[in-house]
Write a structure and sequence with these properties.
CATH architecture of chain A: 3-Layer(aba) Sandwich
Shape of chain A: globular
CATH class of chain B: Mainly Alpha
Pfam families (chain A): ABC_tran (PF00005)
Order of helices and strands of chain B: HHHHHHHHHHHHHH
InterPro entries (chain A): AAA+_ATPase, ABC_transporter-like_ATP-bd, ABC_transporter-like_CS, P-loop_NTPase
Helix content of chain B: over 70%
Helix content of chain A: 25-40%
Function (chain A): Part of the ABC transporter complex HmuTUV involved in hemin import. Responsible for energy coupling to the transport system.
Oligomer: heterodimer
Radius of gyration of chain A: 18 Å
Strand order of the largest sheet of chain A: 6-9-10-3-11-12
Number of strands of chain B: 0
Structural class of chain A: alpha/beta
Keywords (chain A): ATP-binding, Nucleotide-binding, Translocase, Transport
Number of domains of chain B: 1
Distance between the termini of chain A: 48 Å
Protein name (chain A): Hemin importer ATP-binding subunit
Shape of chain B: globular
Largest interface: A-B, 27 and 21 residues
Number of domains of chain A: 1
Largest sheet of chain A: 6 strands, mixed
CATH architecture of chain B: Orthogonal Bundle
Chain lengths: 260, 332
Amino acid sequence: MIKHTLHGKNIHLVKNNHKILFDVSITLTQGELITLIGPNGAGKSSLFKVLTGYYPSTQGECFLKGKPLHLWRKKDLAKERAVMKQQSIIPFSLSALDIIKLGRSPWEEPMNKNILDHVIEITQCVPLVHKDYAFLSGGEQQRIQLARALIQLWREEGPSGWLFLDEPTSALDLYHQQQMLRLLRSLVKKYSLSVCMVLHDLNLASLWSDQIYLLNKGSIVASGSVTDVITEEILIKWYGADLKIIKHQEYEKPYVMLCP
Amino acid sequence: MDKRYFVYLMVLLLLLIGAIIGAANIGPVHLSWSSLFNFDPEDIDHRIWMNIRLPRILLAVIIGVALSISGTVMQGLFRNPLADPGLLGISSGAGFAVAVALVIPMALPHFLTLWLPVIAAFVGSLLVTILIFQLSNLTKGNLSSLLLIGIAINALGGAAVGILSWVSNDQQLRQLSLWGMGSLGQTEWPLIFITLILIIPTVIIIQFYAQRLNLLQLGEEDAHYLGLNVHKTQKQLLILSALLVGTAVSVSGIIGFLGLVIPNAMRLIFGNNHKILLPASALSGALLLLVADTLARIMVQPAEMPVGLLTSLLGGPWFFWLILKEQWRRRA
């Protein structure tokens, strides 16, 4: 299987005369789960919007499968990358199923019912689909949005492309956090899918990421495997928080503990 | 698509056909159906058919379609159930432009004088629509500021039309005030043809935007991620709906609240999928305006009530209820 990449090369972003991103380079490879972490206002969401093609970069360029992002036709790009934002407010009442189905709109061919049912099942949305989206809780809405984003990338053989998630677990309870991350992990391993997410919970990042990028003030200040980035020295330096790192005995992943 | 909705649509269509037949039979003079097809210039009944009743019914139907569709599109575009061409001042903008065109003397070739009010109304409504849309983005679609902007534009438009009537001569004033009351008494065939030529294709084109309107409901960013060219789509929809409002206002003056009442009522029955919401709004808008206009014709015989008054009477309480509902929803 050829592993394609989405490559952001020397990205600069200036908005309203503020430098938001400064010389950021990042590579998202299919088959990997990549996490962006960093203190508030570090530019994580802005980097997301550049990588997904929503903001044009001021300098530098993003290449998806080797082709500059802005040269992609919008519909073709929508078949390669899907995005789940933190929160989506929908003004009129629509059923959760309607929302999920909108994820299929880049595709001309009619929706494959089996794929729809499968995605609804693995995202655990079965009991939610006939409810009014506006009346779902924040966590339930996140699950619906994940289903919508997955169905956007699903082909006959499975999901393929780049899936961006901005704090996908922010409104989820422990059980559903675990379920969602396990699902993403298994999809990444099984199919030609790349997942890139912003996470605030460093322990979730530690348990499930292949690569971590630490952003601060618009620059990448640390990157690499979990054990490279989640260290006391790095986190204390960039977050300024008082913390300890313990090694989990069974899973061999660093575990971040705030000092009381 | 839900089969039930298809049945509802058919019911609406049958009701509309029934209303057309009913409206044709109601009036100060009873007309026989046979005289409709008796193309004899001596037959007075036939002339009433052709010059008064038929154009009026046609106009009510087509203006009803135009106003309700423009309301549906604006609500989808602004992502706001209270968007309405009247409330947002778009009709006022069109009205002001028509008033300017009527009062300011211009030497134009004859065929253009016929088109002049329509063109002016389109330009007026388009300018206000673009202004409001920009302001709406600026205020992040905040509901109350949007309505306040509408109030301001309505006040300005009203004052401007007032000034124009003040400087106009007697004949212009008569023209202006007749048109301003909002009525469907305009029965010249060339004008009706213009109306049909502009409104029917626009409404059909808008139907092809149904899925794009659905995508816009997710918000600009999500719609973009799903492959929609958001700004291009918004611009095109703004122009299409301004074309509808402009044409309607130039022919029939300002008929309020139809664009608010119809789409919201249809949302309750059909849900918010634009593929079904648009045709439902078109049919029921035509139905409501035709019924209201027929009532306006017969309620105070031999005089006639401006139909705009009737629709406002109906729409006012509905608007009130909608605002309360929005407040509850926001609190919940």
